[in-house]
Hints:
Blueprint: E1 6-11, H1 13-17, E2 30-31, E3 34-35, H2 36-39, H3 42-47, H4 49-64, H5 70-81, E4 85-90, H6 96-99, E5 105-107, E6 110-117, E7 123-125, E8 145-149, H7 159-168, E9 171-175, H8 187-193, E10 197-202, E11 214-217, H9 220-233
Parallel strand pairs: 1-4, 1-9, 4-5, 9-10, 10-11
Antiparallel strand pairs: 2-3, 6-7, 6-8
Zinc ion binds near residues 117, 120, 136 and 138.
Amino acid sequence: MKRYNRIFILTGAGISAESGLATFRSANGLWNNHKVEDVASIEGFERNPALVHDFYNNLKAEVQNVSPNAAHLAITTLQEKYPAEINVITQNVDTLHEKAGNKNVYHIHGQINQAVCLNCAQVLETWGDVDTETVCPHCQVMGMMKPNIVFFGENLLCMDTVERLLRQCDLFVSIGTSGVVYPAAGFVQSAKYYGADTIEFTLEPTANNYLFDKHIYGKAGETFPQFVEELLAAL
Ligand SMILES: [Zn+2]
């Protein structure tokens, strides 16, 4: 096992699923029994903002009731014990990484405990409900808050940082991503192009399987902590 200086960890729905959270893009196109286009598109939000707020308020409550699993906790161990810069780039809108004590977490698809004001662009952080009557604490305008979730067709967040980290990393790790949702599915290609070793932890072969040097199949809660042990043992 090599020594690494900069580790880029990309996580997707699979790591949250092991904590019991429904995955955002399941095979049947439903998310907690809602059509994804109704609750995760700008058109859906414009059509029925109350429904969209309601959906994310419910998800917010659900998220608060789940706990991080062994894979999340192993990232904390790695960050505490392994002498490298370790960043976590997640497609998940839950905050299980933070709950597990992970540092340097970037939510490229937004996060459930935030709303953004469409009038002044300020972000409001709250675990309380947000609805069509919520007043923006910054500009005092009512009814302009949108869940700070990246909807279809919107730009991902933190991409300047992500692109820099992809150029710099010498180990790229993917945990629980399907490899079909772009642009995140292309991250491995960039990292590989810039010279990083690439490894994926997944339940089954992914769409961009061929871009990884190594594949570890199984539950991330079992396989990833073991990998962390191996990294630490090589110090
Ligand atoms: Zn505002």
